[in-house]
Amino acid sequence: MSIQLGKDAPDFEAQTTEGPVSFHDWLGDSWAVLFSHPKDFTPVCTTELGYMAKIKPEFDRRGVKIIGLSVDPLDRHEGWAKDIEETQGAAPNYPIISDADFNVSKLYGMLPAATSGDPLERTPADNQTVRNVFVIGPDKKVKLILVYPMTTGRNFDEVLRVIDSLQLTAKHKVATPVNWQQGENVIIAGSVTNDEAKELFGEWDEPKPYIRVVPQPQ
What we know:
Helix content is 31%, strand content 22%. It has helices at residues 23-27, 43-61, 74-88, 103-107, 156-171, 194-201; strands spanning 13-16, 19-22, 31-37, 64-70, 96-98, 132-136, 142-147, 174-175, 186-188, 205-208, 211-214. The protein has a five-stranded mixed beta sheet with strand order 5-4-3-6-7, covered by helices on one side. Strand 3 (31-37), helix 2 and strand 4 form a beta-alpha-beta unit. Helix 2 (43-61) crosses helix 3 (74-88).
């Protein structure tokens, strides 16, 4: 199954470290980040899970729920959490899905539909494509997809930056330019006519007719 931006995030039921989850019910009216891992007790993923725990208050402040996933049985997640706390200084403080039946990984296009068997017999390399970050909006639509190789740790500060942009542009008719950070100037959306822009924004800088720059709306 191919997951595309703007399409519905597939619903599912799964066991997690915080009990059973029905994904769309768990989402409610919130934004969410789902980030996946090929296997427990993998080094790069260990650093990522610990860092995410440390910066969870930043996601909370933005009204964003966090949920992890790993292709291993639930009892291994519990042992891994202890290692994460010991080595990274913080244990996961968000649910982690046990995707031992590969259901979620297949629903989200991270593993082939034919994948089956005992997850404990699979190596991290067998599941190397389970390295995605999905940002999902309150409308249950997929807003962002990032895919990382196993050898490169994810940048969750960048995920926060993108969420700031997504939440801003969901409320206002603007887009954010390259390397934009919260509080910086934005670009009036191309779908907005000049007459509409005058009503919404007043004046703007226009280095080119298709680039209309204004302060970030509050």
